[in-house]
């Protein structure tokens, strides 16, 4: 018996997964400024044990957290973005893509997988804000559409975990059309009576909120996430005054009737399992 | 007819309009004065006008097209409704919060007979901009609030109930980015429309008539066929906002317009737009009557084609069409199975 037996499998993942947190054994919580031990934080699903702040969680960690036995099949990792518009602002889009791939060790801003949760079949897609702001271009739209398709052709429930600045500017109208594409596939899932759970993380804005993220049968969000259509800066400039405290936060959306539940990540597996158990039994 | 009021002139229109004014003066002079024959000079000037027109409008930059799409004299949704339909009855309100004046809609008789098809009842709706300061404010610059999208959805569901086709006209700088819009669920309202329009069991023809920015346009823009006027623009964001985000300055709107590839020919190339509706030389505002005829013809033809399909075929084709939106690379699949990592 080793002294350092891992209590939970799959918690310590490769370094490339940890790019949203600074290196080192100690991490300062942006929520409450407490100095946290990295190992403890990771055992706590990257939620600050002091204030409940949710650090970004990678797709792999979400898969491990949700699927039974941490067993699942990944899909669509072989899709890569092209540069259909030859887009160039201060930097060419191709360079931005290359940098994002290097930084995240991922091909794109969403990853998909299938597996089971409490024995129930589930298709999951997880967006990743560290890849060009989690923005949705052709590949992201296609992977999401395939995740929905996989759900309705294989009789699975669907869960999409969103974290995105919205549609990707560098693919112009093609990005915009991904909103319609993903939403259109959701109609077929609904026809089959299969549940769709949407879980919105910090931040979820723009064309992602204004399409599949708001279309869950059950709309859920992590605590204190920024969720909206227009960004706070744009709204402030439009109306010429400061925004009220808590505006566009999860709790605000719950109060205004656009969320069913705010779910702490530490309870996510349990909550999703319970909901799907009720709906798919 | 071209309106020569100089306050409405775009920079690149000025030389042309000045030349046209000169031509008009000469014609008047010629008509009033029998002793001088100016016909040769007039003919020469006419050909110069034509030439100048060609040189200006054949090589429009993307930013110039954006300017034409925003021309203050450009026909708006209500003008199209007046020209293409009869007996329009505007319907109001979302039955939940209010009536949004940035979107107008209602039932009307589409004048298909003019184009060789039958007249028929349609549901027509679109973003509405205002002509003067007062009306612009009243129409919120064509930027809808959630109740606008919800009104549109209510009307489209009525169209489905009475089995009438839907024509939507897109002309917005975007959904309104306001505090109340967010409170009342701008994102949810747009998302709901995308979902419902994808399965609305009647034909939907979408026409981009002016500006088509972002989810604010798409919120009434999902359908079976996408038509776009020659000088309209359609993209994920306006050139100005794109400039402010990517260049961190408002000064790069021309570069942003170029980068976004937002013109009708650009969008045909990437498969987003099905058909370009040609505009009169110089833009829709220089000859609205001609534009209405061309647009009416295009819509009549598309409606005729779509109405030949059964509802299941129509909806399958709509989903297939949306499904193939996007351009990307796909390497050979190599699915990996993650086993427990102990």
Key attributes of the depicted protein:
heterodimer; A: 281 residues; alpha/beta; 2-enoyl-CoA Hydratase, Chain A, domain 1; seven-stranded mixed sheet; two-stranded antiparallel ribbon; 9 helices; globular; B: 342 residues; 2 domains; eight-stranded mixed sheet; 10 strands
Give an overview in words.
The complex is a heterodimer of chains A (281) and B (342). Chain A is of the alpha/beta class and 281 residues long. Chain A folds into 2 domains: 10-55, no CATH class; 57-279, 2-enoyl-CoA Hydratase, Chain A, domain 1. In chain A, 33% of the residues lie in helices and 19% in strands. In chain A, the strands form 2 sheets. In chain A, strands 3-5-6-7-8-9-10 form a 7-stranded mixed sheet, with helices on both faces. In chain A, strand 1 and strand 2 (35-37) form a beta hairpin. In chain A, helix 4 runs parallel beside helix 5. Chain A is globular and about 50 Å long. The model of chain A is unreliable at 5-19 (pLDDT under 50). Chain B is α/β, with parallel strands linked by helices and 342 residues long. Chain B has 2 domains: 11-59; 66-323, 2-enoyl-CoA Hydratase, Chain A, domain 1 (Alpha-Beta Complex). Helix content of chain B is 45%, strand content 16%. Chain B is built from 14 helices and 10 strands. In chain B, strands 1, 2, 3, 4, 5, 6, 7 and 8 form an 8-stranded mixed sheet that branches. In chain B, helix 1 packs antiparallel against helix 2. Chain B is globular. The N and C termini of chain B lie far apart (78 Å). At the A-B interface, strand 3, strand 4, helix 4, helix 5 and helix 6 of A face helix 7, helix 8, helix 9, helix 10 and helix 11 of B.
């Amino acid at each position: 018996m080793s002294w350092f037996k891992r209590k939970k499998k799959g918690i310590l993942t490769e370094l490339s997964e940890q790019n949203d947190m600074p290196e080192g054994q100690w991490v300062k919580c942006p929520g409450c400024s407490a100095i946290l031990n990295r190992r403890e934080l990771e055992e706590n699903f990257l939620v600050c044990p002091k204030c409940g702040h949710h650090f970004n969680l990678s797709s792999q960690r979400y898969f491990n957290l949700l699927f039974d036995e941490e067993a699942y099949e990944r899909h669509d990792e072989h899709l890569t973005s092209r540069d259909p518009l030859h887009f160039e602002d201060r930097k060419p889009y191709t360079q931005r893509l290359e940098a994002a791939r290097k930084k995240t060790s991922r091909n794109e801003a969403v990853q998909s997988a299938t597996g089971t949760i409490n024995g129930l079949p589930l298709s999951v897609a997880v967006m990743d804000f560290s890849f060009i702001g989690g923005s949705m271009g052709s590949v992201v739209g296609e992977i999401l559409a395939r995740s929905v398709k996989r759900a309705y052709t294989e009789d699975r429930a669907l869960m999409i975990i969103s974290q995105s600045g919205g549609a990707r500017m560098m693919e112009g109208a093609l990005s915009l059309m991904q909103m319609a594409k993903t939403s259109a596939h959701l109609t077929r899932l609904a026809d089959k009576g299969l549940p769709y759970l949407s879980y919105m993380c910090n931040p979820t804005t723009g064309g992602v909120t204004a399409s599949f993220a708001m279309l869950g049968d059950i709309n859920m969000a992590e605590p204190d996430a920024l969720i909206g259509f227009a960004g706070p800066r744009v709204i402030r400039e439009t109306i010429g005054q400061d925004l009220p405290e808590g505006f566009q936060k999860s709790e605000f959306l719950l109060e205004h009737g656009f969320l069913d539940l705010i779910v702490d990540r530490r309870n996510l597996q349990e909550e999703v399992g319970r909901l799907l158990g009720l709906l798919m039994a | 007819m071209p309106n020569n009021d100089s306050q409405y002139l775009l920079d690149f229109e000025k030389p042309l309009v000045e030349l046209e004014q000169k031509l008009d003066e000469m014609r008047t002079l010629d008509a009033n004065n029998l002793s001088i024959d100016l016909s040769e000079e007039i003919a020469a000037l006419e050909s110069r006008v034509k030439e100048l027109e060609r040189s200006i409008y054949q090589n429009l930059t993307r930013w110039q097209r954006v300017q034409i799409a925003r021309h203050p004299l450009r026909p708006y949704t209500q003008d199209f409704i007046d020209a293409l339909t009869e007996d329009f009855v505007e319907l109001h309100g979302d039955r939940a919060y209010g009536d949004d004046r940035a979107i107008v809609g209602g039932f009307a008789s589409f004048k298909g007979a003019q184009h060789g098809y039958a007249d028929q009842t349609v549901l027509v709706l679109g973003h509405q901009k205002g002509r003067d300061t007062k009306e612009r404010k009243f129409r919120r610059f064509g930027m809808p609030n959630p109740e606008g999208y919800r009104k549109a959805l209510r009307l489209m569901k009525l169209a489905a109930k009475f089995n009438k086709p839907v024509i939507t006209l897109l002309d917005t700088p975007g959904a309104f980015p306001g505090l109340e819009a967010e409170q009342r669920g701008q994102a949810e309202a747009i998302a709901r429309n995308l979902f419902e329009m994808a399965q609305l069991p009647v034909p939907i023809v979408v026409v981009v008539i002016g500006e088509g920015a972002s989810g604010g346009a798409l919120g009434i823009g999902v359908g079976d066929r996408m038509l776009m006027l020659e000088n309209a623009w359609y993209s994920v964001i306006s050139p100005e906002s794109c400039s402010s985000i990517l260049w961190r300055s408002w000064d790069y709107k021309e570069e942003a317009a170029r980068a976004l590839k937002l013109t009708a020919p650009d969008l045909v190339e990437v498969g987003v737009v099905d058909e370009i509706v040609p505009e009169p030389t110089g833009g829709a505002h220089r000859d609205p009557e001609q534009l209405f005829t061309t647009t009416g013809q295009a819509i009549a033809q598309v409606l005729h084609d779509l109405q030949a399909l059964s509802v299941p075929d129509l909806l399958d084709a709509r989903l297939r069409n949306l499904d193939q939106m996007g351009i990307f690379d796909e390497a050979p699949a190599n699915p990996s199975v993650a086993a427990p990592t102990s």
